[in-house]
């Protein structure tokens, strides 16, 4: 991940800073907006690299746009979900059979063995890194819900993976299925979801993550409101031993299997 700032000029003498991400960690494609201004030169200055002392750019584009955007404290206030593979978000902590399953937008095809991301209770978390900092005030989660279990958890956000701010504390609440989390809008590059309880076993499972919450997506309204089981799916996948708590520190046999690989991003 990198930190940087961007300045523009007409004469290479007087420079105006239009983007300042020097205090944030950023990765991959950066979609940057600022009030339109006349310029001839653009200067990109890297200030930090989490791996070495060199700042690298692969591609650069600049243009004028008629697209309507909202800025707050110099950061985009997104209206659409930016926690997507297309927007270069990534799951950097958590275990899944499929890399970035949490962000692929699939909220239907999951079962006891696949389609979710998890972590052992009391150890680790599920962490999503956005490509760049945004002003975020809501998120939406789909907790694994192929049976009647409930979870407890909390959510934190950060811009640098060092200082974390808790934005939701549901450690004393029994939560099922879809979760809407709203909070005071603030800069965020990282979102950390930490499970604290599962009524079935010792693992926290999450199927889908989005931020900000997409209010218009209500395709599974009945399931969201009630948190009920998808009976047809459960009857096909149900393992009679699925609800047994695991022994020791191993992951449970269901949902998922004992053969898992950590879904971590390597910089």
Automatic annotation (TrEMBL):
GO biological process terms, alphabetically, are: adult locomotory behavior; circadian behavior; modulation of chemical synaptic transmission
The annotated regions of Polar residues compositional bias extend over 229-238
Question: What Gene Ontology cellular component terms go with this record?
Answer: cytoplasm
Q: Which InterPro entries match?
A: BTB_POZ_domain_cont_9, FA58C, Galactose-bd-like_sf
Against SUPFAM superfamilies, the record matches this protein to:
Galactose-binding domain-like
**Pfam families on file:** F5_F8_type_C
Q: Where is the composition biased (Low complexity)?
A: 246-267
Question: Could you tell me which residue ranges the F5/8 type C domain spans?
Answer: 98-204
Output the superkingdom of the source species.
Answer: Eukaryota
Region named Disordered = 215-267
Q: What is this protein called?
A: F5/8 type C domain-containing protein
Q: Which organism is it from?
A: Marmota monax (Woodchuck)
